[in-house]
Design goal:
4-stranded antiparallel β-sheet, mainly beta, about 170 residues, single chain, 1 helix, globular
């Protein structure tokens, strides 16, 4: 579980290459290398500007020892339900074992960091400004679907489930 997280955007930050335009930094307590992480990203519907056409590619990386960023491989991104931040959805990651805060002086060393970077290009035009606004992010989420296999009674749904009722997954994905 995560006791806390820190999120901030740095659209004018230091660029490692000319096409890196925007960064989204996500800091987590208790995130360990080799674990998995899912994040719900809720987009402000209607704030996109032809996002599916004009949005830049999103590159994910994690902070490893001594202020170095390691780019996540394509197979470290298990699912991108946001289609590169163009719609609300869940992104699932396999966190590289190198994730570390050792020698970290550029961000809070109490947290483990992921970074999303927008890679702009001029032909065809793909700009950070085309990305929609983010309303909120939530860590460690899942998609749940009710399967009525026992001809269940539905009256219990009126009040909803009490907090803590669901303690684990019936079928694990990782």
């Amino acid at each position: 579980s995560f006791a806390g997280s820190t999120i901030f955007k740095d659209f004018l930050g230091v660029r490692e290459s000319r096409n890196q335009r925007g960064h989204l930094y996500l800091g987590f307590e208790n995130l360990e290398g080799g674990s998995s992480l899912s994040i719900l990203i809720h987009i402000d519907e209607g704030s996109e500007r032809r996002a599916a056409v004009d949005s830049p590619e999103i590159e994910w990386s994690c902070l490893i020892a001594h202020n170095q960023w390691k780019r996540l491989r394509q197979d470290d991104i298990i699912l991108d339900g946001t289609r590169g931040f163009t719609k609300s959805g869940i992104i699932q990651f396999k966190i590289p074992s190198e994730l570390s805060s050792e020698g970290n002086t550029i961000l809070n060393p109490e947290l483990r960091w992921l970074r999303a970077t927008a890679l702009e290009q001029s032909t065809p035009t793909k700009l950070t400004a085309a990305l929609p606004s983010i309303v909120y992010l939530r860590a460690q989420v899942i998609t749940a679907r009710f399967a009525d296999v026992n001809d269940n009674e539905y009256s219990h749904l009126d009040a909803g489930q009490a907090p803590g009722t669901i303690s684990n997954l019936a079928i694990r994905k990782s």
